[in-house]
Amino acid sequence: MSQGNDQGFTLIELMIVLLIFGMLASAGVTLLSYATRAQQIAGGKDKETAQLRNLSVVLTQDLAQALPRQTRANTVDGGRAFEGARADSLFSYIRGGGRVSVEKGQGPLNRVTWAVADGVLVRRIHAGTEAGGEFIAVPMIRDVEKVEVRFRSKGAWRSDWVEPEPAALPSAVELVVDTKTSPPITITAMAGPAL
Fold this sequence. Notes:
about 200 residues; five-stranded antiparallel sheet; four-stranded antiparallel sheet; rod-shaped
């Protein structure tokens, strides 16, 4: 038997190399799909977190501008400065700092109403101090399953707001928002101008 120069790979060596290459390629594709999925989930959570942060900021700023100012008593809201839950809203209040629009007959005071409509938490900014007529609806959070509201007054929390004084404001409002995609989040904001 004479031995010659072997110039190449045997079939078994090629098959082993192809097997190793296939395993590495499969692991790479799996890792890439996990990374892509994680990025999609993180992107969705970032959007949710931004919406919740925006809700917290807007609610806090709005309630800080709530004014103990009643309106005409023959209006939809009964002339109250702050109105608790009704059939069409979670709560509403009069706030200062609104835009003045001479064309629309709009002054610096607006009624703001918070409501849930078709699974969306909505902030409605009315053209004046009454809860009827024109308003701008701003969607705050989508996929809302449930919202609970509590009001703080005289050192205690309560789920309803019925005050005999039409100009009365709660000292704080607590909103618990439960969505389809995240656990319930609680937002508490002081109401009325800081004294």
